[in-house]
Amino acid sequence: MMDANDLTIKIYEDGAEIEKMRAASQQAFVKGFTTNPSLLKQAGVTDYLAFARQAVAEFPEQEFSFEVFSNEPQEMLREAQILHDLGPRVYVKVPIITTTGESTADVIKELSAAHINLNITAITTVEQVEVAERNLAPGTHNLISIFVGRVADAGIDPHHLIESSVEITKSHPEASLLWASTREVYNVFEAQQMGVDIITVPPALITKLSKTGKAALEISVDTVKGFQRDIEESGLSIL
C-alpha cells in the first residue's frame, strides 16, 4: 500500500492559481511551485510579474520555477535576469529549444556561468538532457525537466528516457532531475522508485495524493458508494 506520508521525492504543485497554491501549501509534502505559459493562460493571469511577485511573497519558504517567454537569445537573457531577481529560491525556466527547434545551449551556458539557477524545460530526449548538463557551470544548482507525460501521450514508452536521465544527473551534482507533465497519482510513487528527485503535480492530483493509503478493496467500496450517492441525487432509475 502506498501512502503520501512515505514519500521522499520532492513535490512541486504545477499551476497558476494563488488559491490552489494556498491549498497545496497546506500539504507537508509540497515543497515548491512551477508554472508555464499554458497554465498562466488557463488561469487567466494577465500580469505575469505581479503574479510571480505575489506568489514569492506569500510562500517565502517554497521553491519556484518561472519561465522566460522570448525565443530570441538576448531577450531570453534579459528576461531571465528579471525572473532571477524575484528571489533566491527562484529557478528560471529556459526551454531546451526555441519554437523553431534551435538549441538554447548558449543561453543556458551564459546564464549558468552567471550563477542563475535554471530549470531546463521541455526536454523529451536523452540527447537534450546531455546538452543541458554539459552547459551547466560547476557549483550551480539547477533542474532538468523531462516531460514524461507528454512523451507517454505520444505513444512512446518513457522508461528509457527516465532511466537514462537518472543515470546522467546522478553523476553530475549541478542538476536535479524533475519529472514533468504528471498524469496520475501513481506517477509520483513510480518517479520515486526510479530515482527521480522532483515531480510536478497538478492541483487535482495533489488532492488525490493526500488521500492515498487505502487498500484496493476499500477503493472498490468507496466507488460503489459514490455511484449509489449519485443515483439517489440524480433521481435516475431503470424501471
What does this structure look like?
One of its GO terms (molecular function) is transaldolase activity. This is Transaldolase. Keywords: Schiff base, Transferase. InterPro entries: Aldolase_TIM, TAL/FSA, Transald_staph-type. 34% of the residues are buried. It is built from eleven helices and eight strands. It has one domain: TIM Barrel. It has 239 residues and is α/β, with parallel strands linked by helices. The radius of gyration is 20 Å and the shape is globular. The model has no long low-confidence stretch (mean pLDDT 95). It has helices at residues 18-25, 37-43, 48-58, 73-84, 105-113, 126-134, 148-153, 159-170, 186-194, 203-209, 216-234, and strands at 10-14, 30-34, 63-67, 90-95, 118-123, 142-147, 175-180, 198-201. The longest helix has 19 residues, at 216-234. The chain has an eight-stranded parallel β-barrel with strand order 1-2-3-4-5-6-7-8, surrounded by seven helices. Strand 5, helix 6 and strand 6 (142-147) form a beta-alpha-beta unit.
